[in-house]
Design brief:
single chain; 90 residues; alpha+beta; four-stranded antiparallel β-sheet; 2 helices; 4 strands; globular
Length: 90
């Protein structure tokens, strides 16, 4: 089954809770078959941050999904730079 994964990075001063991120991602995908995770990352020589992964099992890569999740994240994190990368697995 194909799987779509989006990832984005936030600096430590910006954060979003797992439940809220899961709600936003499910709404963007228009599906409940989604998951989210967060892992620690080094952004520079001394600065840590987080990489968030968003996965949807039964959805194709769509500009609409990307647009919806970007808009939702921008609304809840207005001062955070949001850059989303994607991968599509089949």
């Amino acid at each position: 089954m194909p799987s779509l994964v989006y990832r984005f990075r936030l600096r430590p001063e910006h954060s979003i809770g797992r439940k809220e991120l899961l709600r936003l991602w499910a709404a963007a995908c228009r599906s409940e078959q989604v998951s989210v995770s967060r892992s620690e990352s080094v952004l520079g020589q001394f600065e840590k941050g987080y990489i968030y992964s968003l996965e949807a099992a039964t959805i194709s890569d769509s500009p609409d999904v990307r647009q919806r999740i970007t808009a939702a994240l921008t609304a809840v994190l207005p001062t955070a730079p949001i850059v989303i990368s994607n991968q599509f697995f089949s």
